Amino acid sequence: MNRGISIALTSIGIAQALKIPLHYMKKKEWKPEQFLATGGMPSSHSAGVSSLATYIALKKGVSTIDFALSVVFGLIVMYDAQGIRRQTGELTLKVNDLDELVDKIKEDDPVKYEEKVPDPLKEVLGHKPGEVIGGALLGAAIGTAGYRLSKK
């Protein structure tokens, strides 16, 4: 497999795995399903793209088109992870709150109401800026390690 791809995928896996103990340290609950969760610390999106950009910078140099593409791609991914996806998650919180509001209104309504209970929308979709930075730093470290290990 291409070394850059394997480093990026390894970074994503390590970032996802780190979510389990970090969640435990913060919430005091062991949740292995955090491995497959979106959002949270560190951002696996940021780790993947920054490890790839770091590896390319060390392997080919910062003046190459490969590095330029990886940086621009990485910035777009990280912006999306903490911008658009985070806003979507915050909007989802509001939508889920509306369900509770409808229930309260329904209690005072004499009209027959047939409730269909949907699953609540997932509320953690994106990342806080610190989670994106944490993922980027983790990715840069893994990209550097991957480069150094490939030289041996």
TrEMBL record:
Pfam families xref list: DUF212
Provenance organism: Bacillus badius
InterPro entries attached to this UniProt entry: DUF212 (IPR003832)
Record-given protein name: Acid phosphatase
PANTHER family: ACID PHOSPHATASE/VANADIUM-DEPENDENT HALOPEROXIDASE-RELATED PROTEIN, ACID PHOSPHATASE_VANADIUM-DEPENDENT HALOPEROXIDASE-RELATED PROTEIN
Highest taxon above the source species: Bacteria
